Amino acid sequence: MLFPEGFGEYPGHPAHGGHARFFDLSAAGAIVRVPIPELENHCVLDSPDGLLLLQRDGDTAVRLLHPFTGDLAELPSIRSLAKQLSPLENLPGNGSDLVRVLVRKVCAAVNVTATGVVSVMLALERFGRVAFASAGDDEWTISSWKVRGLYRTLGYQGKLYTVKRERELTHISLITLPLPPHEGEVSLPELPPPKTVATCSSEHIFLPSLVELDSAIMLVGYNNSSCSCILVLKLADLVVGRIVPVASIGDHVIFAGARSLCVSSSWLPSIGSNSVIFFHAGYGHLMQYHLVTGAWSTASDGYLMPSTQTRPCGLIHHIFTCCDRQFWNKGFLFYNASRVPEWQGTQAWRIGAQN
Q: What sequence ranges are listed for the domain KIB1-4 beta-propeller (predicted)?
């Protein structure tokens, strides 16, 4: 995972000398500093499967970078995606400036076929749509359908998983790439609509997020609307109609947010294993819940003020920042914000000011 430096030092900041730091979520160890010259004129949109989904300044080209090998896959631009979305969303004029701002809050999933074809799906939260393209394509293919619940989307093994509440039920759905066209077909494939893979009562789990743990997908959320304790459920159990809270997550800590992460507890000896960390807006703190004892405690010192964090900050703040892409990619540590922070460098290209 790309390490969020914070304090205004966005990826590609001149102080980094063309390098970026990465850390392994699965086991504590050295934080690796890697040369990534692309960050000088690219911004980071997401980090699916440890890769970097980049947007190039100027032409808004989307590129998928392997940070350790330097391999690049070229994808259609954000500008082309904006032009395609504008008529679908009935935006005034061509709406391209507005769309280029909104599409930057994305969750990506990457699929690589046996023949080496790289495809990327983007969950466009603000529009309730999904777009996909393969390396070398001229434009994105956008879903004809819309769906709620893309806020807490999980990209996993080339697929997108979504969770949403409708009335008193929680639905977990799967979005997959279309099958490749048959030989001789020239029409673009249509993105299949989301397929519900599991449903449970919202009384069993409330406001859940999706997280990957040891190659299994979990739901982490409150026990009910009282929010008195936190539960972890296995998606595989829900698929077969079994609702059994996970008693232990082993030597792991779950950071629950819009993008939930599972981290080795060896990174955080002061927290310990079998814990869930989340931001409690009411208390203004990062809170910790221990799954075995059911005990609540503050996960870090200090109230998260509605402004940028000041030094010093603990590692827990850096890791929790990864749960919110809108802080993680802009050089700020997570704080209790009423407004989303903006990029501090080359803003003209990164907030949609250019045509």
A: 22-279
